[in-house]
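> tool_call: predict_assembly(chains=two)
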Amino acid sequence: MRKALLVICIAALLSAIVSAKTTITVWTFFSGGEGFIVTDLIKKFNAENPDIEVVEQIVEWGELYNKLTTAVVAGDPPDVSVMHLAMIPDFASRGALTPIDAYASKDILSDYVPEIISKAHYNNKLYAIPIDTHPLVMYYNKKLLKKAGLVDQNGEALIPKTWDELIKYAKTAKEKLGLEVSITAENGPMVGERLFMAYYTQLGGEFYDAKTNSIKLDLEKAKKTYEFIKGLYDSGIIKSMDYNTAESLFQNDQSVFHLNGVWAMAVYPTLNLEFGVTSVPALEGSKPYTWADSHTWVLPKHPKDDPNKIKAAVKFIEWFARNAAEWAKAGHLPVLNSVLKSDAFLSLPMRKDYAQVANFVVPAPSMKGWVEIRQKMWEISQSVILGETSAEQAAKQLQQAIKDVLAD
Amino acid sequence: MTVYNKRKHTLLAYMFFLPFGILLVVFKLIPFVNSVRMVFYKWDVLGTPQFIGLANFTRMFSDRVFLTSLWHTFYFVILTVPPILILSFLIAVLANSKIYGKGFVRSAFYLPYTLTISVVCLTWALLYNPYFGMISKVTKFFGLKTINWLVDPLWAMPAVSITTVWWTMGFSIVLYIAGLQQIPSSYYEAAELDGASSFKKMIFITIPLLKRVHILVIVTQIIASLQIFGQVYIMTAGGPAGKTRTVMQYIYEQGFRYFRMGYAQSMAFIMFLIMLVFAYLQLRLMISSSKEELI
């Protein structure tokens, strides 16, 4: 009996050595529709690559970054983790990520939307493989626009191309339809950070200062942006509200326009809603630049690098990026030009209407502490909307916040 | 009893204490000592802690966000503790009286306490919603102005407080009911013979005899309210414009979002000291009130 057991054990051990599977653990925070897509893609990868086994571990959305930090401190992080592009400087600067320049394929790097892959670098080292971008876009309710008489010669709903047009249409629709609001957007991150960055960039504002190789704010343009935001609220076409209220009003035909990320595309087409999606309006003479973040895959730092594991992990994350047309079903835009132009992606519903937005994305500046600055941005703009801070003071406060974070 | 036996007893007592003692030392005492040590350091969790003396404290007292958060926290205490004290006392009196349906009163007011924080906060956020919420429907019916509760700088904190009172009152009600049942009915009977009205019985018998419960409710509520975090985090995210940010939330942001563990630890230490004062106060008041009872 004992001998038999021994033989079985040895046989099992031998077969394990022969198959020599490299196991890659992956942390994700995706749930719902996004979660199913990721799990399916991982299954597909495992089937195509018998030498690698990717094991997914789902971590709660709000907890992932805390847990990742503690896992790195404990010396036992996952081999791969999801990470927002905007978080990379915070983690890379603290040595929590493994640089992957030596492992990434050359052809994939040149295929990327330049603005996105440049932000996957920190101090000239590559730390992430981005899999999507999720920009701020504008949704519009076709039924309400038609009802308000905002149509072209063919009877199609008019789509505002500039901010002035948006304001004009929104005012008309609000009056004619007797709506409480005609534009809805969450008043924290959506307006204070995302709309701010879109408008500020359209004005020609930048966060990166090439002269000093650091982050700065163009005071005059920031002030103009805050004046614009204040003007929107003062005109009554938009009111302060939280995310769920903004979405509910739009979904229930109670608002004509809605500013939100492309992730809403995972849900809106499934509703009984006559809507369209397009890039945010542009200032005259500017391109429709817009805020965007990205989901990326990163390799958290282990106490000791295992080149075999890193190779297998990079193989998986590159494969995922190349198969991002499937992932794009969740609403996100692919960031590889080859995928962006592929039929698999463009044949998804309405994607043609906003695929071009990928060319005008403005990710967070590559700086440590951006997480703190954006929190300040949400609050400063809320204070401007409430009329407690003037546009000029607000711009100065934001400039001071950036200085403080850089100095810390 | 011999000396030997006494020693054996002591040993046995320690043996019984040991399993809990080990857990206490490993999971409470050592982390506590470490966290107090960390107030003198700058630490981003991943790097090595850097000794900076008292810099965390000087920073704290010139940090306007910390000081306003401290005020918001006290404001929340002021908005929640008196209503909880008064309402739970009145409801307990009602639930303890010989009225029809007191069982319903008891469970109706205790039930919210059994709900989880996210259920409570999301439900109330929906009630407060100016477009779809029930409260705005009621105010509209009476011709009142619709308040945008959670994004109005004036109303956001009161709204969070109302939710908290509704949610946590059940616990104090139970304490009061227990207290009320300990008052001998002979006191009331004697008062009735002397012709005391219900109001006088309440003022001269019920309220003074519940002194210990009052102290318990006030102090535990103050300490609980000082730790307010979840409600504001879910309902307002500290907004609008940081007007409902509390110290616990700021500690979380500094420690886990901006990775300033030492700074977060120092703020937590200050909160610990504040709560220690209240806990000490409770102990002293309880001791003195039990002495009174002996007299």
